[in-house]
Amino acid sequence: METETSALIFVIEDNLNNLKILFNVLRDAGYRVLVATDGVTALEKLDQVIPDLILLDVMVPGRPGFEVCRELKQNVRTADVPVIFLTEGTAIATKQQGLALGAVDYITKPYQEDEVLSRVQLHLKLQSLQLKLQAQNQKLSQEITARRIIEGELQKLNSNLECRVQERTEALFQALQRLKEQDDQLRYKAYHDLLTGLYNRSWLIQHLNEALHTGQPKTTFFLDLDRFKSVNDRFGHLSGDILLQQVAQRLQAFLGKNGVVGRLGGDEFLVITPVQGQDGEAIAKQLIEQLRFPFQLHHYTIQIGACIGIVPTTAPYQNVTEILRDADIALYQAKRIGSNTIVPLTPQMQRQALERITLEGDLRRGIEQDEFFLQYQPIIALKTRQLVGFEALIRWNHPQQGCISPTQFIPLAEETGLIQQLDAWVLKAVARQWHSWHHQGIDLNSITINVNLAAIHFQQRDVFKQLEILLLQLNIPPSAIKLEITESLFLDSSALTLYTLEQLTRKGFKLCIDDFGTGYSSLSRLHTFPMQGLKIDRSFVSAMSVDSSIIVQTIIALAHHLGLDVVAEGIECAQQAEQLQNLGCDLGQGFWFARPLGIPQATQLLHEALLICG
Q: Are 116 and 107 in contact (CB under 8 A)?
């Protein structure tokens, strides 16, 4: 027999894709590989060459796998060659039939590389040890026969030989035991998550695949932990690992034998149960309840939650990838709604997800191909009705769909991280437009351009470095740019965020809180941030009843007390403008004054404002 790493493996498989997979796996592992796609050809080749091991498909055409195996075992030349059957199913009767014919093992499709190699290595090793044992026994037998001639040494020789045989038999048994333990370890690692001990992605996919092909009705729950990142950030990744282990134990204890649970990775888990419909939703609610109980990490009590997307395997799925895709879609919707939310998949979600994927691809292409442009909405001083600035608003001219609303693509850009590229593009476009107006002789000393920025920039600051360089190159004062940031930034009190805001203020940039009153900012913390203005959200302006006018008046008074300018958004009639002016509001913008303007119209408005001022 060849050495194990250069052994000849004969693969008999009629599916060319499967044959290619096995051929590449075995060849890359250093084995020599002989192939056949039907039983007749395989038997003809075996008349010419004797392999070290045979991988035989049960359903091979020409001569079925069981018939081929029977003939091999009846042939003296091939009777000792180990045969491993390749099969689609896991039926016990099928396996017993193959083993009764003389096969040594089974490998179930679809093939897992680790499993194929571990089984091939195991049976090659066993065959090698078996041959060595036979050779040793033959040699010992010859020694016994020869030494029996010496009458005086016969008894002593027999005793010694028995000891040697026993020692070698024990050594062989121990070697076989070690090989079995190694094989068990390989099997465990191949199908289990080493951190939690749960099943891993490979096993879950295989389990779902079996359920899909056998038509077993099951429900898949895609579970994602809430606030797991904050646990990692606050207590460290080691504590995060401990939390994952506790979550795994709790899920396993709850499910028992009524389902399986596995970890896909990170803080994502997959639960598969035989229940369906409303029973499935009831299980999901119980899963969330299990995770709402506090966890103990060191000396701290931690509370988390979870979101769950639900998908039944009874839907017309072609493969497991589609099941996991739809489970992810349902989970995405659950996470958008909020903590401890359960969302079963609907056809509408599938359509929206496809549209979102398409739009994301178009958005990436649009950034690369410069499909965006800016419009400028005037900002007016309410007392004098003079132009004091613009808000730069990004627009997307889609080549097929035309102008797409920012409400569609801005949230998508924030979710995908593309918002950083979009904001950088807007800042560059605004700086160049200011430079162009300045070169046209327009006096911009009293004009500022407001630009909306996502909160993520205040953690990274790269965009601000680029902006500083650009303004320096174009000789634009930083005070010409007013950066609008959302209230959500107030939730982030990190030292880096505060430092970035303070540095921007020191360098001359103006900062403004956008859509004030709709978010989560604390009035008591407002004074800790270096702001120069705030914008009252249009929702307060559009409903200027007695109650909302009191809220608006309170916001204006607070802002003025802190030395902030106040801009009211969404002014759509003269009555609103007059009421806001009477309440002490400084500035306003909205359709009553002007809709967002293209560059030519904004340029004309600047010239008219100059003439009025002059």
A: yes
DSSP tag of 251: H
The strand pairing partners of 84, in sequence order, are: 55, 105
Q: Which residue has the higher pLDDT, 440 or 464?
A: 440
Amino acid (1-letter code) at residue 285: K
DSSP letter at 128 equals H
Of 272, 268, 165, 167, the residue nearest 216 (C-alpha): 272
* Pairing label, strands 481-486, 510-516: parallel
Q: Is 324 helix (H, G, I), strand (E, B) or coil?
A: helix
Cα–Cα distance for residue pair 35/57, rounded to 1 Å: 12
Could you read off the pLDDT of 183-214 as tens digits, one per residue? 767 777 888 999 999 999 999 999 998 888 88
* pTM score above 0.70: no
Say which CATH number the domain at 317 has. Answer: 3.30.70.270
Peptide bond into 110 cis (omega under 30): yes
pLDDT in tens, 291-327: 999 999 888 889 999 999 999 876 678 888 889 999 9
Q: Which of 492, 364, 370 is nearest to 417 (CA)?
A: 364
- Report the greatest alpha carbon distance in the chain: 135
Residues 184 and 220 in one domain: no
Contact 46, 78 (CB under 8 A): yes
Quick: pLDDT tens for 548-587. Answer: 688 889 889 989 999 999 999 999 999 999 999 999 999 9
Number of domains in the chain: 3
Paired sense of beta strands 53-57 and 8-12, if any: parallel
Task: State pLDDT tens for residues 361-392.
Answer: 999 999 999 999 999 999 999 999 999 999 99
Sort 117 into a burial class: Cβ within 10 Å, 0-12 / 13-18 / 19+.
Answer: middle
Give the span between the Cα atoms of 35 and 14, in whole angstroms. 10
Q: Which two tokens stand for residue 22?
A: 């096995």
CA pair distance 288, 595, nearest whole angstrom: 48
Residues spanned by the domain of 50: 4-189
